[in-house]
Design a protein that fits this description.
Largest sheet: 7 strands, antiparallel
Oligomer: single chain
Helix content: 25-40%
Strand content: 25-35%
Number of helices: 8
Shape: globular
Number of strands: 19
CATH class of the largest domain: Alpha Beta
Length: 335
C-alpha cells in the first residue's frame, strides 16, 4: 500500500479503508473454495469407502451377472435385458433399452451389511412365482404395476427391497431370476390365463357359509357375494374409512365348487409382507401392489388379488390374510 501526503491526496488510513473490503472478499472466496474442495474429497472418500465395503465379486458370482459400480453413490448394480420375449407396445416392437431391463442395486447398509433394491420385469405368468421366490428368500416386495398401455404380451414390474448380508441378498436375487427362467423354460411364450376351468354362466354362490367364515353378512347380488372390511385413517385432517375407499374387500362369483374371488387388501407398510405371504401360500394370485392416496395417516398400501377354487376354500384363504394382518382388530365391518 502506498502512503500519500495530506496535500490533495488520500492518506494511508483512507486507502486502507477502501482496499480492506476487497481483501476480505478475496479471503472469504478462498476459504469457501477450500471448504468446497474438502467437501468433494470427503464425499468421494465416503462413496469409495462404501464401495470398498461391498464384495462385488461375490455379488457377481451369486447373481450370475456382471455388475457395474457407481463410484459417486457407492452403488453396485447388476442388470439384464428381457430379450427372451418380444414385446410390442402400441404396435411398436420395443427394444429392451427403452424400459425392459431387470436390475438389482446393492449398497452398504446402516443396520446390516448391505441393502438391495431392484425392479424385476415380469410377464403375467411369472409374477406369482417370482414374488413367492422373493418373499421365501427374505426379500420384501414393495410394488407391482404396469408401465405401459397396449403392450403385448402384458408386462409387469415388481419392485423388491431387502437388508442383510451380501450372501443372503445376492443369493435371494439369483433365486428370483432363476424362478423366472424356470417359468419361461417350461413355456417360451407367456400364457394367456391361469389355466383354471371355465366359470359357469350363472352365478350361484351360497352366502351363508361365507357369512360364517367372515363373521359378518355379505352383500348379495345375482348369485354373487361381497364382503367389505373398512379401516380408519385420516387424510388432510379428514377422517376416512370404508365408505371413502379405505377397505379390504372380497367378491365371490361362480358356483360353490367352481368359484372365483377377487378383491383388494388395505394394509399398512408393516402388514404388507406377512399378508402377501399368507395369500400366496394359499394359492391366491397377487395382481397389483400400489397406493390409492397421498398424505394419508397411517400410510396405506393396497394390493389386488385373484383366486380360483371352491368358494369356502377361497374364503378361508382371504380370511387367513385378514387375520395375519390383524385387520379385524382395526376394522369397521359393514353391518
Amino acid at each position: 500500500m502506498k502512503a500519500r501526503t495530506i496535500n490533495g491526496e488520500m492518506d494511508m488510513v483512507a486507502s486502507f479503508a477502501i482496499e480492506q473490503p476487497a481483501v476480505m472478499c478475496s479471503l472469504h472466496n478462498k476459504i469457501m473454495k477450500q471448504i468446497f474442495i474438502i467437501g468433494l474429497i470427503f464425499a468421494a472418500f465416503t462413496c469409495a469407502s462404501l464401495a470398498a465395503d461391498l464384495d462385488t465379486a461375490k455379488i457377481d458370482n451369486l447373481t450370475g451377472l456382471k455388475g457395474k459400480m457407481n463410484e459417486k453413490e457407492g452403488v453396485y448394480k447388476v442388470t439384464f435385458p428381457r430379450t427372451d420375449v418380444k414385446v410390442v407396445v402400441d404396435g411398436w416392437t420395443m427394444p429392451p433399452f427403452m424400459g425392459l431391463g431387470t436390475w438389482a442395486a446393492f449398497t452398504k447398509g446402516v443396520h446390516t451389511e448391505a441393502m438391495v433394491m431392484g425392479d424385476t420385469v415380469l410377464f403375467e405368468d411369472e409374477v406369482n412365482a417370482g414374488m413367492t421366490a422373493a418373499l421365501d428368500n427374505g426379500l420384501s416386495v414393495t410394488a407391482l404395476h404396469n408401465h405401459f398401455f397396449f403392450d403385448q404380451p402384458k408386462v409387469y414390474f415388481m419392485h423388491i427391497e431387502g437388508e442383510g448380508g451380501v450372501d443372503q441378498l445376492a443369493g435371494a436375487v439369483r433365486r428370483v431370476y432363476d424362478k423366472i427362467k424356470e417359468v419361461r423354460a417350461a413355456s417360451p411364450q407367456p400364457k394367456q390365463s391361469f389355466g383354471a376351468n371355465a366359470l359357469p354362466d350363472k352365478n350361484s354362490i351360497s352366502a351363508d357359509p361365507l357369512n360364517q367364515i367372515f363373521a359378518m353378512k355379505g352383500e348379495e347380488n345375482n348369485g354373487m357375494v361381497k364382503f367389505s372390511i373398512g379401516r380408519p385413517a385420516t387424510m388432510h385432517g379428514v377422517k376416512i374409512g370404508n365408505a371413502m375407499g379405505v377397505n379390504t374387500w372380497a367378491a365371490f362369483a361362480g358356483s360353490d365348487d367352481n368359484a372365483v374371488v377377487d378383491g383388494d387388501f388395505a394394509v399398512t407398510e408393516d402388514e404388507l409382507q406377512p399378508v402377501l405371504k399368507s395369500l400366496l401360500k394359499d394359492k391366491i394370485n397377487i395382481v397389483a401392489i400400489h397406493q390409492h392416496m397421498t398424505h394419508e395417516e397411517p400410510r396405506i398400501m393396497f394390493f389386488h388379488y385373484w383366486g380360483r377354487g371352491r368358494a369356502k376354500e377361497l374364503a378361508n384363504a382371504v380370511k387367513g390374510g385378514v387375520l395375519v394382518g390383524g385387520l379385524l382388530k382395526v376394522s369397521s365391518p359393514l353391518p
